[in-house]
UniProtKB/TrEMBL annotation:
<dbReference type="InterPro" id="IPR051404">
    <property type="entry name" value="TA_system_antitoxin"/>
</dbReference>
<dbReference type="InterPro" id="IPR035069">
    <property type="entry name" value="TTHA1013/TTHA0281-like"/>
</dbReference>
<protein>
    <recommendedName>
        <fullName>Type II toxin-antitoxin system HicB family antitoxin</fullName>
    </recommendedName>
</protein>
Length: 70
C-alpha cells in the first residue's frame, strides 16, 4: 500500500460540485467542495483496488488567458 497524490478538478453545476480526477478518469459530486472531494477520493480508491495504475510522473497544470469574442 502506498499513498499517491492525484488531481481534483472541480466545477459547480447548479447546486452541486462536480469533482474529476483526470489521472484516473473518475468523477464524483457533492453539495460542498469538501463532500465532492471526499466522494471522489472514495470512488478513486475503490477503482484503484481493482485497476491499479502504473507509477507515472505527476502532470503539470496551469491556467492561461484567451480572448473570447462574444
Amino acid at each position: 500500500m502506498a499513498i499517491r497524490t492525484f488531481t481534483a478538478v472541480l466545477h459547480k453545476e447548479e447546486d452541486i460540485y462536480v469533482a474529476e480526477c483526470p489521472e484516473v478518469g473518475m468523477v464524483s459530486q457533492g453539495y460542498t467542495i469538501e463532500e465532492a472531494i471526499a466522494n471522489l477520493k472514495e470512488a478513486t480508491e475503490l477503482y484503484l483496488e481493482e485497476f491499479p495504475l502504473p507509477e507515472v510522473a505527476r502532470p503539470l497544470m496551469t491556467t492561461f488567458d484567451a480572448i473570447v469574442y462574444a
